[in-house]
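Trying the structure run again after the queue cleared.
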Amino acid sequence: MDRPRHITPAGYRRLAEERERIWRELRPRIVAEVEAAAALGDRSENAEYIYGKRKLRELDARLRFLGRTLDRLTVVEPLPHPSGRAFFGAWVTLEQEDGAVRTFRLVGGDEFDVAQGLLSVESPLGRALLGKGPGDRATVERPDGPVEVTVLAVAWSPP
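Done. Tokens:
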């Protein structure tokens, strides 16, 4: 049996909104484009028709993926831990070896986006930060060697 896949309410909402937008906006528009291209005649040499069908298959595949994913996710409302340590849903500010300071939110694997500061608890850095509090150090193994980070702060709302 698969272990539960956790997601924050905001992450679940983003995935559900993407599915809804594809279903209500993008797919009907592409269907209309394919129908218009099909009306032009010979479909075998009709680039608009061929491209539209390909785009429609991609959208349908994404809809199936989102449907399966949303069905198996468990929404978890992150609550502050009394110890002040970092757990699922926490915002963790850390200092890297080079002095750079970054803030990440520890989230589930289905909602991570490092560019937006959403770090999966399943990633090496995410696993290393779990259970850490301000002042704690964590060592993360990377392909080019280990790196050490220091936790500066743990918060339960965006900084």
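The two ends are 37 Å apart (CA to CA). Worth checking whether this holds up in the mutant runs.
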